[in-house]
Amino acid sequence: MALATIFEKIVGKDANIAFMAYDGSKAGPDAADLALEVKSPIAVAYLAQAPGELGLARAYVSGHMDVHGDMYTLLDRMWNITTNDLSTAEKVAAVRALGVKPLLMRVPPPPQEMRQSTLARLGSRHAKQRDAEAIHHHYDVSNRFYRWVLGPSMAYTCAAFPEEDSSLEEAQFAKFDLVARKLGLKEGMRLLDVGCGWGGMVIHAAKHYGVKALGVTLSKQQAEWAQKAIADEGLQDLAEVRFMDYRDVRETGFDAVSSIGLTEHIGKDNLPAYFAFLYGKLKPGGRLLNHCITRPTGKEKTFNKGGFINRYVFPDGELESVGWLIREMEDLGFEIRHEENLREHYAKTLRHWCDNLDANWDEAVQEVGMGTARVWALYMAGCIVGFERNKVQLHQVLAVKLDEHGRSGVPLRPARDWP
């Protein structure tokens, strides 16, 4: 059966996507603004051996399949076989249509894919050495590459857009300031920022609030970049970023703890110990701001071990619902004081990152290689679709460690209302 015919059966005739293949077959309207090109039998082997999002990702990342047109629009139209993946029945039908030959081809995954066997050799899920390798896989790509994608803020977390047309830098500043205000930061306080990335929150707290801030990250490249940025700002007396596991922080008695984009890497089984650890780092009346991606409900899988995101982007990543996270925090002694969902803000943040990658595409490919650049293009565009369609959310939860008399120290209303 011609590849174009199979494609049309899976995607449907109304998707408005052109299709072309090395066997000469074509499908879809000639005037379509999007086209998918299967360039070799290797692409077909990837699709046959892993039908759905993983096979498509392997074929695209390896260069055996090309996308002509906007990646986000393509993934949005192909929702059922990309972000949402195929049903089991659809996968079986697709494999049968492709035939036996592609199933027998030996085609190793692209080198950008993190093998489960590699992780398994480093210990159980979320053991320290294994976590370090998972973080290294994603974050130690290239500081120059991240600078092109993230912009000057080097903030690799959801921004908070004050206005619809705010710039990415304005929105990232607003996010850090929102966290600072929720934490009630004041001059002379001490802040611990776990999973601090390139030090954005640490620098913001020290520079704009006079806070003595300590950040920790498992990425050596991030720590080196952050320490240089701190020195460039002349903040060495207030700010520090260490290359270390958050579990190895010995200091205690912090006035505030921020966790911005780390919880997703902790793992469900370890989250009680994680929140207990952060609780122990706070002085009575101290506040925790937990900012992380979540599942929309408690019914979905916590992680998809065989999916594109887990294999190419965030190895061992796990998402929980915000309700589950809040219950764990409460059971450990935290009082929840505020919660909000920034889902739409993350979709906007990702659009800016995609635009930045497009604008610096040639330089990015030269820096990290075509395969890695394609991983990022696919991952970020797919995440926009996921946030827009409420497959994933982004929640900020503010919690406080009460003093011995049950006092929170939180004012009746914030001095400046949170947006």
TrEMBL record:
GO terms for biological process: lipid biosynthetic process; methylation. Keywords: Lipid metabolism, Methyltransferase, S-adenosyl-L-methionine, Transferase. The keyword Methyltransferase applies. GO terms for molecular function: methyltransferase activity. The active site is at C383. Belongs to the CFA/CMAS family. PANTHER family: CYCLOPROPANE-FATTY-ACYL-PHOSPHOLIPID SYNTHASE. This is Cyclopropane-fatty-acyl-phospholipid synthase. It comes from Nonomuraea wenchangensis.
